[in-house]
C-alpha cells in the first residue's frame, strides 16, 4: 500500500505492506535510520519519535495509522546542519556512550522542553522514564537536559 | 608462600594438554598463528622505555589529556548519524532468521525444511551439517557449533537458519521448518549437574557435567583461621543476570564473486571473530574482512562469536547475496553470556585489631550449556579477590558446571563481581563482630602500592585508601553509619580489577595491541587500530593521545578502528584492556612520530628536541616561541621533507606477570584499578521495597585521560551493579505439570527489568588518580572495576537500615520482606548500633567475642 | 525485529462505518486505537486477525465533557490527556493519578482510556513470543488447552491489568457500548467477567463509546495505589482503588477495588456495614485491609509470587485509605 507520512516537515511516500510498523517504515523505507530498535515491542524507548507534539513509540505504531500526523525524528532536530541545543548538551556532558538509546532519549527530552522549557530534575527523570539507557546510569543525560534548558532560557 | 596445591598436574599457565590442543592451530583453513609460542622468555617484546617514563606529558603540562573534551564520535551519535549494524543495507540483501530449540535438552532426530524451501521468496536453509566445525573463544574449550548438529542444549539453542526476501518471510518460514526431537533429561541447576553426571549436557566436557575445577591455596588457611579472634562463615547466592545492551546483536555478511567475505557485526572482538569465521567457514582468514560498525552497547555480551555471524556468512556463501541477521530481543537473552549464577561459601578470619587473616572460599558456578570464557571465569572467581586487602592465607575451590540453559560468560566485571559481593559482606560482618567501623577495617587491611598479593599478583599503583577517604567524606559517613533512623542506612564496599590481562586468549607472543599512525601533509593524523569502541570511548582516547603528542586539535584526527582489512590487531574490548593496552600502543606510535617532528624542528632552529613544544596546532621552541614557531601542519611538511612519508607503528605487549604455578597468570594484569562505594538506602519495612537513594563511587583509574568518559564509566558501572542488586534475574521456569524445564522466565525488556531513570539512585563519581608507572600517561581501567562494590555496598546498607543480611540476589521486595519476617530484624539492628556506638575500636569483646557464638554462625553450612 | 502478522487495513471514517464492518466481521477483526496493547500482542501472535480496524480517525470518540450531571470521556482520549486534564484532576484525582501511573510517558501519550479499559488480561505464560509459547506447549488462552498457573484449571486466570478500571469502578462509572443495532449502558462494576480469555461483557461487534462518571462521585475521598517493581513501564502487580463519601457524621459509603490479581477487578464486599458512620482513619483502614485480605486470592500469573502479593493487599489498602483520608 502507499503510505504517505509527514516526517520532519516533509511529505514522504513509501510503499509498504499493511503490517509495517512506523519504525520499519522510517528505517527501511525512508532511510531514516536514526530511530533505533531495541526491544521489539514498546519496552525500551529507543524507537521514540514525536508525533503531533508528543513522544510516541514507533516500534508499536502501525505506519498506516500515522498518516496525516506530524512526525519528528532525530533527523529533524538539527536545523541547517546545526545540532539542536539538546543534542549539543548531550555531547558536552557525555550523556551518549554507546549512543543507541540516544535518539529516543533526545526525542523524549525534546517533547518535554517544547511543553515545559524549564523542567526540574524530577520532571526530566519522569519524562525520560520510558527510555531505557544501559550505559550511563542516566546522570549525565539528565545533566544534559538541564543544561540545554538553562541555555535556552539564557537566550533572548 | 606455601606451594600451591592443585588438583591438576602442571605445566604452568594452563597450557592445553596434547589431546585437546586448540584446533585453530591445526586446521588448514584456519588462521594458523604460531606467533612465537616457543619463543624464549627473554625475547618477548618489551614495551619501549622513555626517559621521562610514560606517565608524564610530552611537554611541561597536558593540553588535551585530562580535559573535559567531547568524544570524537559524539555528534554523530546525538544527531542519529552514527551507523550501527542494523543501519546497513546492501543491494539484494536477504534477511535470515534462526530456528531454535523448544526443548532444554533434546536429540535432533530429523530436520525437514522442504516446506520452507518451497515458499516463494525463501532462498536457503542451513543446518548443523553445513557448519559442523566447532568453535569457542578459548582455544582449548571449543565446544560450540553455529547450529546444533545432533543435540540442542537449551531452549533457544540454534538449529537451522533460513534466508528469505524479508524478515517477515524468514520468520514465517521458520514455522515451516519441522524438527523432530527426542527429548532428554535436562539439567537445570548446579546440584542436578553434579548429581547426574550421566545426563551429560556437553559431550566435550572432560567428565560428567564438569566444565572446570580449580583449587588453589596460598599460605596456611586453616592455621590462620584457627588463630583468628573471630571467624565468620557465610553462604551467598549470586543470581545470574545478562548484559541487555539496548542494541540487539546484528550482522550483515557479504560473500562476493571473488570468494571474499565481508562481515559487519556488532561485536567487541573483531579479531577473534575473524579467526573463528575462518575456522568454521573453511575460508582462509586472509579472505575475510570483519568490520565493527558503531556498537550499541555490549558490556561483555558481544565478546565472542555467535551463531548469527556464522549463519549469515554461510547463507551469503550459499546464495551469493548479502545476508542480514538481526536478533530479536528474545534471542539476545538466549545468546546471553551473562553473569554466572554462583553459590559462594566463605569463611573469613579477623583479629581484634582488624587484621584479616585467612580466607576460605568454596564456589559453585552455573555455566549454562557451553564453555564460553568459563575456564577464565572459574579462575577469576578466586584469583581476583586478593586485593585491595592484605590477607595472610587464601584458599579457593571453584567448580563450573554445565546446565541446560543459555551459556554464561563475561559480563562487566567478569568472574569477580560475585565473590566480591560475598567477601565485602563478610568484611561487614567481621567489622560488626569486632565492633569496628567497616571503613576502618578496610583501611587497616589496604594492601598498599608496589607490592604483591598472597597469590603472587604484582600490584603497582594503588589509590584505594584515598578512595575510602573520598567516599567516607562525600557520603558524610561518620554521621550516618549506625546513626540513621530505622529503615535508612549506609553501606560501604571496596574492590579491585584488572587493566587488561597478560593472559592472551590464544597463546602467542605477538603484541596485544597495535596501532598504525599516519601523518598527512595537510596537518591531519589518522589512527588505524583494531580497538573496539563499544561506547566507553576508546576511539576518543586514541585521538586524545595523538593530539597530546603531536599538538593537534582533536578535530584534526581521524580514527579508523576495528576493521581487519585496515587496522592492526588489537584483541578487542574485554577485560578492561583498551585504555591501558591500546593507549600504550598509541603512545608508542605517536612518540615515534613526535621524535621525528621535534628532531626536524630542533635541527632547523638549532635547539634540543626536548625544547620543542607541539600544542594547540602550533609547533614552537620553548626558547624563543615568538620567532621559532610554525603551525603543526608546516612542521609535518618539514618533517616529511626530511624523513619521507610520515607514518609509524606502535604496539603494546604486557610484561610476563603472575604467580609461578598452574593458573598463576590468570588474573595477572599490568595494573589494577581500585574502587570504593558508599550506598545509602531508604527501606519500606512494610513492603520490603528498598530505594537506593545515593551511591558515591570513588575510583582509582590511574590518570583520568578523559574525565567525562571516566565518570561515565563509573556511573554506568555503579548503575549496572545496582541493577543486579535490586532488580535483575536471568532465571528460568522449572519444569511443571504441563511444560518442560528451561523456559526463560521472561526474555523481554518488560519482564527482565532494567532500572529506569526513576529507579536509579543519584550517582556521584569521585575520581582518584594514582598515576600508574606503566599506564599510558599513568592511566588504568575504569570500565568494570567500579561495578563491583555496588552490590555489597547496597547489601551492607540494607543491614544498616533494617538489621537483615541480604546474602542472596536480587534484594527485591519479597526477599527483603521474608528476611524481615525470618528473625527479629529490629533486635539485630539495635545490636549492630550498639556495637559501633559503644565499643572502643581496639578492645572489643574480651574473651571469645567472635570465635564462638555469633561469629561462627553459618560456618560449615556448605 | 519481531514482525507483525499480515493483516488487511481498515480505517473507518466514522463510528457507523466501524460498527457496520464489525457487524459482519467482528470475529475476524481486531480493533486498534493507541495500539500499545494490541500491537505487542500482534507481534506475539496472540491475535491473528484478518482485519485491523483502526479507530484513530474517529474524532467523535475523542472528547471530555463536563456537565452538571456527569463527566463523560470518549474512549479515544489518551491517558496522558486524562492525567493532565484540569477538571479530572480537580474532581476525580484518583482517575488522573491512575492514568499518570500507566506504563511510560510514550505509552500514556499513545494509549487511550478505552484501550486501557479493554486491556487484554496478562499472564507470564501468555504475554510471550510465539516461539516461547511453542516451547511452553501453549496455554488455554491462546493456541493451547492447558493452564500453567492452575494446572487443573479449565478457566483462564490471566490478570486484569488495567490501571484505570479499578478507579472507574470505585467512582461508580459506567460505559456506553454500541454496536450496529444500538447501544447499551453498563456500570464498569459489571463490565468485567471472571474469564481471563475474554474478561469483559463486550460481544462481537460492540465497541465502548463513552465512559461516564456520575456527578455524585465528585468530592469523594478517593485514592489509587499501585504495586510494581519499577517506578515506570511496569504493569501493576497489585492495584487498589478506594473512594468514600465522607461527611461530618463519618463515612456514608465506600468502594474498595483490588485488582491485578485475577481476571476481573475484585470489589470488596460488605463494606457498607464496615464503614457506616466511622471516620476515615487508620482504624477503618485496618478493618478494610483485613476484609480485603480475606476476600482476595492472588495467583502466580504475573511477577512476584502469590503469597507476597496477598500480603501486600492489606498494606496497599491501608495506604489507599490513608491517601484518601489525607493522612500523611
Provide a descriptive summary of the structure in words.
The complex is a heterotrimer of chains A (156), B (862) and C (328). With 156 residues, chain A is of the alpha+beta class. Chain A has a 5-stranded mixed β-sheet, with helices on both faces. The N and C termini of chain A lie far apart (47 Å). Chain A has 2 domains: 2-76, Ubiquitin-like (UB roll), CATH 3.10.20.30; 85-154, [2Fe-2S]-binding domain (DNA polymerase, domain 1, Orthogonal Bundle). Chain A has 5 helices and 5 strands. The longest helix of chain A has 16 residues, at 139-154. Chain A is globular. Chain B has 862 residues and is α+β, with helices and mostly antiparallel strands. Chain B has 3 domains: 41-70 and 510-652, Aldehyde oxidase/xanthine dehydrogenase, molybdopterin binding domain (Aldehyde Oxidoreductase, domain 4, 2-Layer Sandwich), CATH 3.30.365; 85-184 and 249-326, Alpha-Beta Complex (Aldehyde Oxidoreductase, domain 3); 214-242 and 337-502 and 661-853, Aldehyde oxidase/xanthine dehydrogenase, molybdopterin binding domain (Aldehyde Oxidoreductase, domain 4, 2-Layer Sandwich), CATH 3.30.365. Chain B is built from 20 helices and 30 strands. In chain B, the strands form 8 sheets. In chain B, strands 3-5-1-12-9-10-11 form a 7-stranded mixed β-sheet, sandwiched between helices. In chain B, strands 7-15-14-13-8 form a 5-stranded mixed β-sheet. In chain B, strand 13 (342-350) and strand 14 form a beta hairpin. In chain B, helix 10 runs parallel beside helix 18 and helix 18 (790-802) crosses helix 20 (825-838). The longest helix of chain B is centred in the C-terminal third of the chain and has 28 residues, at 578-605. The two termini of chain B are 27 Å apart. With 328 residues, chain C is α+β, with helices and mostly antiparallel strands. Chain C has 2 domains: 1-56, 2-Layer Sandwich (Uridine Diphospho-n-acetylenolpyruvylglucosamine Reductase, domain 2); 63-118 and 159-325, Uridine Diphospho-n-acetylenolpyruvylglucosamine Reductase, domain 3. Helix content of chain C is 31%, strand content 20%. Chain C is built from 12 helices and 12 strands. Chain C has helices at 15-25, 38-43, 79-84, 86-91, 93-100, 105-110, 113-117, 130-136, 164-170, 271-275, 282-295, 306-325; strands at residues 8-10, 29-32, 51-54, 64-66, 70-73, 174-179, 182-187, 207-214, 221-227, 238-247, 250-259, 266-267. In chain C, helix 11 (282-295) runs antiparallel to helix 12 (306-325). The model of chain C has no long low-confidence stretch (mean pLDDT 96). Classes of the chains: A alpha+beta (156), B alpha+beta (862), C alpha+beta (328). Chains B and C meet through helix 3, strand 29 and helix 19 of B and helix 8 and helix 12 of C.
Amino acid at each position: 500500500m502507499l503510505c504517505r507520512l509527514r516526517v520532519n516537515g516533509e511529505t514522504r511516500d513509501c510503499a509498504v505492506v499493511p503490517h509495517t510498523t512506523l519504525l520499519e517504515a522510517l528505517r527501511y523505507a525512508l532511510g531514516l535510520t536514526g530511530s533505533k530498535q531495541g526491544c521489539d515491542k514498546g519496552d525500551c524507548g529507543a524507537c521514540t519519535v514525536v508525533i503531533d507534539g508528543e513522544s510516541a513509540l514507533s516500534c508499536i505504531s502501525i505506519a498506516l495509522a500515522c498518516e496525516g500526523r506530524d512526525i519528528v525524528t532525530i533527523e529533524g532536530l538539527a536545523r541547517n546542519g546545526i545540532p539542536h541545543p539538546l543534542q549539543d548538551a548531550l555531547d558536552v556532558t557525555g550523556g551518549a556512550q554507546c549512543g543507541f538509546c540516544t535518539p529516543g532519549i533526545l526525542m523524549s527530552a525534546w517533547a518535554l522542553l517544547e511543553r515545559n522549557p524549564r523542567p526540574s530534575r524530577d520532571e526530566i527523570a519522569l519524562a525520560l522514564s520510558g527510555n531505557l539507557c544501559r550505559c550511563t546510569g542516566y546522570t549525565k543525560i539528565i545533566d544534559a537536559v538541564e543544561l540545554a534548558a538553562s541555555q535556552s532560557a539564557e537566550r533572548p | 608462600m606455601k606451594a600451591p596445591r592443585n588438583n591438576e598436574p602442571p605445566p604452568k599457565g594452563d597450557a592445553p594438554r596434547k589431546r585437546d590442543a586448540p584446533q585453530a592451530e591445526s586446521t588448514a583453513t584456519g588462521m594458523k598463528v604460531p606467533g612465537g609460542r616457543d619463543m624464549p622468555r627473554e625475547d618477548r617484546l618489551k614495551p619501549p622505555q622513555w626517559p621521562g617514563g610514560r606517565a608524564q606529558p610530552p611537554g611541561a603540562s597536558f593540553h588535551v589529556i585530562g580535559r573535559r573534551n567531547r568524544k570524537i564520535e559524539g555528534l554523530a551519535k546525538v544527531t542519529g548519524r552514527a551507523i550501527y549494524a542494523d543501519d546497513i543495507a546492501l543491494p539484494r540483501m536477504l534477511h535470515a532468521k534462526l530456528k531454535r530449540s523448544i526443548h532444554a535438552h533434546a536429540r535432533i532426530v530429523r530436520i525437514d525444511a522442504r516446506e520452507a524451501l518451497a515458499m516463494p521468496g525463501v532462498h536457503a536453509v542451513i543446518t548443523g551439517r553445513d557448519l559442523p566445525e566447532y568453535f569457542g573463544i578459548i582455544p582449548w574449550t571449543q565446544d560450540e557449533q553455529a547450529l546444533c548438529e545432533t543435540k540442542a542444549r537449551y531452549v533457544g539453542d540454534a538449529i537451522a537458519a533460513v534466508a528469505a526476501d524479508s524478515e517477515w518471510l524468514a520468520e514465517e518460514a521458520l514455522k515451516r521448518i519441522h524438527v523432530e526431537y527426542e527429548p532428554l533429561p535436562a539439567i537445570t541447576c548446579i546440584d542436578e549437574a553434579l548429581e547426574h553426571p550421566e545426563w551429560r549436557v556437553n559431550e566435550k566436557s572432560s567428565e560428567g557435567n564438569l566444565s572446570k575445577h580449580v583449587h588453589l591455596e596460598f599460605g596456611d588457611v586453616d592455621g590462620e583461621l584457627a588463630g583468628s579472634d573471630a571467624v565468620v562463615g557465610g553462604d551467598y547466592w549470586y543470581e545470574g543476570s545478562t548484559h541487555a545492551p539496548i542494541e540487539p546483536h546484528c550482522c550483515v555478511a557479504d560473500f562476493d564473486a571473488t570468494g571474499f567475505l565481508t562481515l559487519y557485526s556488532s561485536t567487541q572482538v573483531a579479531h577473534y571473530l575473524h579467526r573463528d569465521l575462518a575456522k568454521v567457514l573453511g575460508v582462509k582468514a586472509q579472505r575475510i574482512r570483519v568490520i565493527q560498525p558503531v556498537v550499541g552497547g555490549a558490556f561483555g555480551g558481544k565478546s565472542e562469536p555467535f551463531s548469527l555471524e556464522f549463519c549469515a556468512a554461510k547463507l551469503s556463501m550459499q546464495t551469493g547475496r548479502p545476508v542480514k541477521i538481526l536478533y530479536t530481543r528474545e534471542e539476545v537473552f538466549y545468546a546471553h553470556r551473562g553473569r554466572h549464577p554462583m553459590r559462594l561459601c566463605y569463611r573469613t578470619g579477623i583479629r581484634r585489631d582488624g587484621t584479616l587473616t585467612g580466607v576460605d572460599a568454596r564456589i559453585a558456578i552455573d555455566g549454562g550449556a557451553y564453555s564460553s570464557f568459563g575456564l577464565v571465569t572459574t579462575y577469576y572467581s578466586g584469583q581476583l579477590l586478593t586485593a585491595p586487602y592484605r590477607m595472610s592465607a587464601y584458599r579457593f575451590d571453584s567448580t563450573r558446571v554445565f546446565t541446560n540453559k543459555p551459556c554464561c560468560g563475561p559480563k562487566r566485571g567478569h568472574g569477580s563481581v560475585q565473590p566480591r559481593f560475598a567477601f565485602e559482606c563478610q568484611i561487614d560482618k567481621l567489622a560488626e563482630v569486632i565492633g569496628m567501623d567497616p571503613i576502618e577495617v578496610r583501611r587497616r587491611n589496604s594492601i598498599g602500592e608496589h607490592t604483591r598479593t598472597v597469590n603472587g599478583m604484582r600490584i603497582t599503583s594503588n589509590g584505594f585508601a584515598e578512595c575510602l577517604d573520598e567516599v567516607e567524606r562525600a557520603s558524610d559517613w561518620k554521621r550516618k553509619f549506625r546513626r540513621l533512623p530505622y529503615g535508612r542506612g549506609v553501606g560501604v564496599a571496596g574492590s579491585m580489577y584488572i587493566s587488561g590481562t597478560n593472559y592472551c586468549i590464544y597463546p602467542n607472543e605477538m603484541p596485544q595491541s597495535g596501532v598504525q599512525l599516519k601523518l598527512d601533509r595537510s596537518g591531519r593524523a589518522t589512527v588505524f587500530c583494531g580497538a573496539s569502541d563499544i561506547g566507553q570511548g576508546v576511539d576518543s582516547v586514541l585521538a586524545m593521545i595523538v593530539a597530546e603528542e603531536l599538538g593537534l586539535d582533536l578535530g584534526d584526527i581521524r580514527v579508523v578502528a576495528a576493521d581487519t582489512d585496515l587496522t592492526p590487531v588489537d584483541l578487542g574490548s574485554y577485560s578492561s584492556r583498551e585504555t591501558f593496552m591500546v593507549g600504550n600502543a598509541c603512545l608508542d606510535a605517536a612518540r615515534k612520530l613526535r621524535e621525528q617532528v621535534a628532531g626536524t624542528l630542533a635541527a632547523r632552529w638549532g635547539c634540543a628536541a626536548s625544547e620543542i613544544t607541539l600544542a594547540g596546532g602550533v609547533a614552537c621552541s620553548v626558547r624563543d616561541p615568538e620567532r621559532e614557531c610554525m603551525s603543526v601542519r608546516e612542521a609535518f611538511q618539514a618533517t616529511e621533507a626530511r624523513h619521507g612519508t610520515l607514518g609509524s607503528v606502535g604496539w603494546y605487549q604486557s610484561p610476563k606477570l603472575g604467580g609461578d604455578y598452574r593458573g598463576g597468570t590468570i588474573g595477572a594484569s599490568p595494573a589494577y584499578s581500585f574502587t570504593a562505594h558508599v550506598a545509602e538506602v531508604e527501606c519500606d519495612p512494610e513492603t520490603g521495597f528498598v530505594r537506593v537513594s545515593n551511591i558515591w563511587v570513588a575510583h582509582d583509574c590511574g590518570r583520568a585521560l578523559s574525565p567525562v568518559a571516566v565518570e561515565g564509566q563509573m556511573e554506568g558501572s555503579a548503575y549496572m551493579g545496582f541493577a543486579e542488586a535490586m532488580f535483575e534475574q536471568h532465571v528460568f521456569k522449572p519444569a511443571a505439570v504441563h511444560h518442560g524445564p528451561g523456559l526463560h522466565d521472561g526474555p523481554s525488556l518488560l519482564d527482565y527489568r532494567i532500572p529506569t531513570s526513576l529507579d536509579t539512585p543519584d550517582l556521584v563519581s569521585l575520581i582518584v588518580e594514582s598515576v600508574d608507572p606503566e599506564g599510558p600517561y599513568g592511566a588504568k581501567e575504569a570500565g568494570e572495576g567500579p561495578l563491583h562494590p555496588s552490590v555489597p555496598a547496597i547489601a551492607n546498607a540494607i543491614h544498616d537500615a533494617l538489621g537483615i543480611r541480604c546474602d542472596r540476589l536480587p534484594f527485591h521486595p519479597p526477599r527483603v520482606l521474608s528476611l524481615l519476617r525470618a528473625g527479629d530484624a529490629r533486635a539485630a539492628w539495635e545490636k549492630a548500633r550498639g556495637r559501633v556506638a559503644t565499643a572502643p575500636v581496639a578492645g572489643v569483646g574480651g574473651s571469645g567475642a567472635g570465635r564462638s557464638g555469633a561469629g561462627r554462625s553459618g560456618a560449615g553450612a556448605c | 525485529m519481531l514482525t507483525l502478522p499480515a493483516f488487511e487495513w481498515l480505517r473507518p471514517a466514522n463510528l457507523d462505518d466501524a460498527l457496520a464492518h464489525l457487524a459482519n466481521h467482528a470475529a475476524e477483526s481486531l480493533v486498534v486505537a493507541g495500539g500499545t496493547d494490541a500491537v505487542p500482542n500482534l507481534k506475539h501472535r496472540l491475535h491473528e486477525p484478518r482485519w485491523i480496524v483502526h479507530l484513530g480517525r474517529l474524532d467523535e470518540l475523542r472528547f471530555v465533557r463536563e456537565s452538571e450531571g456527569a463527566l463523560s470521556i470518549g474512549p479515544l482520549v489518551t491517558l496522558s490527556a486524562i492525567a493532565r486534564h484540569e477538571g479530572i484532576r480537580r474532581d476525580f484525582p484518583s482517575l488522573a493519578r491512575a492514568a499518570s501511573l500507566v506504563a511510560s510517558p510514550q505509552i500514556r501519550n499513545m494509549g487511550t482510556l478505552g484501550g486501557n479499559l479493554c486491556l487484554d488480561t496478562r499472564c507470564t505464560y501468555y504475554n510471550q513470543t510465539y516461539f516461547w509459547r511453542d516451547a511452553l506447549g501453549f496455554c488455554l488462552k491462546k493456541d493451547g488447552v492447558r493452564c500453567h498457573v492452575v494446572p487443573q484449571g479449565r478457566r483462564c486466570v490471566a490478570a486484569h491489568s488495567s490501571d484505570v478500571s479499578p478507579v472507574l469502578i470505585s467512582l461508580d462509572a459506567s460505559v456506553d457500548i454500541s454496536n450496529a443495532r444500538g447501544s447499551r449502558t453498563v456500570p464498569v462494576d459489571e463490565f468485567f467477567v471472571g474469564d481471563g480469555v475474554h474478561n469483559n461483557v463486550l460481544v462481537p461487534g460492540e465497541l465502548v463509546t463513552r465512559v461516564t462518571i456520575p456527578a455524585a462521585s465528585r468530592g469523594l475521598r478517593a485514592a489509587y495505589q499501585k504495586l510494581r517493581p519499577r517506578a515506570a513501564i511496569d504493569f501493576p502487580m497489585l492495584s487498589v482503588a478506594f473512594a468514600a463519601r465522607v461527611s461530618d457524621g463519618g463515612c456514608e459509603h465506600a468502594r474498595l477495588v483490588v485488582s491485578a490479581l485475577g481476571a476481573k477487578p475484585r470489589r470488596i464486599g460488605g463494606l457498607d456495614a464496615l464503614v457506616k458512620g466511622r471516620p476515615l482513619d487508620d482504624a477503618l483502614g485496618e478493618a478494610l485491609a483485613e476484609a480485603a485480605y480475606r476476600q482476595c486470592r492472588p495467583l502466580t500469573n504475573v511477577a512476584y509470587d502469590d503469597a507476597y502479593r496477598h500480603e501486600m493487599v492489606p498494606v496497599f489498602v491501608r495506604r489507599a485509605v490513608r491517601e484518601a483520608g489525607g493522612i500523611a
